[in-house]
Design a protein that fits this description.
alpha+beta, Aminopeptidase, 117 residues, globular, 3 helices, single chain
Length: 117
C-alpha cells in the first residue's frame, strides 16, 4: 500500500463524494444529510470545493491513487484548530493505521494546537 497522502481538493473529487452520499449507512455514520439526490450532493460538493468556508482547510485523503476520505482543520483562534475527518472505506486508511471501524467513520479532535505562524 502507498500510505496516506493529503492533497488539495479538486473538482474531480466532487462526483466521488457525491456518490458516497447515496449510501444511507455511510451518511448516517458520517453525519451527512439523507435527503439529497445525486445532483444535490454534486452541487453541494462543487460549492464546498470552489467556495471553501473561511477558517476551514479541507484536504482530500488519498491512498494508492484512490480518494478515501477527507480531513478538515477548522477554526480561527490563534494556535488552536479543530481536526475532523471522514473516511469512506476504512480498510483503505484506518486499517493501515491500526484502527478498525465500518464505512463512513468520522472523527473530531478539538484543540489541535501548535505554532500557528
Amino acid at each position: 500500500m502507498d500510505g496516506l497522502r493529503l492533497r488539495t481538493l479538486e473538482l474531480a473529487d466532487g462526483p466521488v463524494f457525491a456518490r458516497w452520499g447515496l449510501d444511507r449507512r455511510f451518511c448516517e455514520v458520517a453525519g451527512w444529510r439523507l435527503d439529497r439526490s445525486l445532483a444535490g450532493h454534486e452541487a453541494h460538493w462543487r460549492r464546498v470545493i470552489v467556495e471553501p468556508k473561511v477558517g476551514q482547510l479541507r484536504l482530500a485523503a488519498v491512498t494508492g491513487g484512490e480518494l478515501v476520505g477527507y480531513v478538515d482543520l477548522a477554526g480561527s483562534e490563534v494556535g488552536r484548530r479543530e481536526l475532523g475527518y471522514v473516511v469512506e472505506r476504512v480498510g483503505a486508511w484506518v486499517g493501515e493505521c491500526g484502527g478498525s471501524a465500518g464505512a463512513g467513520v468520522r472523527g473530531r479532535c478539538a484543540g489541535v494546537g501548535g505554532d500557528s505562524g
